[in-house]
Amino acid sequence: AHCTLALVKPDVAQDEQAVATIIGRITARGYTIKDRVEITLSRAQASAFYAEHSDRPFFEGLVAFMSSGPTVALLLEGDDVVRGWRMMVGPTSPATARQQMPQSIRALLGDDGPRNAVHGSDSAESAQRELGFFFHPRIQA
Ligand code: ATP
Residue ranges of the Nucleoside diphosphate kinase-like domain (predicted)? Predict the structure, then answer.
């Protein structure tokens, strides 16, 4: 089955009601949450996770934000879940999301700048790499 990484970013991860809303949308859509961890990323971990953006002007602010508090990482499984979760997340900018995809999670819960509530891997290859940051393979009992 297909898997992807969902992150609830530090602007939202400590809001239990918002996390419950996100999880409710995921399961209502038919996806399964196979694993869940909560972690406060170090600056080094946040920099490594977003290494592809290291030359961008927003990188420092992104790393500071992502290491500012807990992140909830979810391992999602389901049919076409990489694309499906990205659709649920909506456009990168919450302001754009509110204009173009008002039902999306970023429209509902995002703020501005890097504070856009959630992350989703953008391809199956990214998902494999990014899931490795948060989860380790386990042998099923
Ligand atoms: P994510 O990878 O987190 O799902 P995305 O793929 O929609 O988001 P990217 O372009 O990969 O967006 O940017 C990664 C993250 O960097 C964004 O989610 C956001 O938190 C932050 N970011 C992107 N563009 C900007 C910007 N112009 N200003 C501030 N922060 C930004």
Answer: 1-141
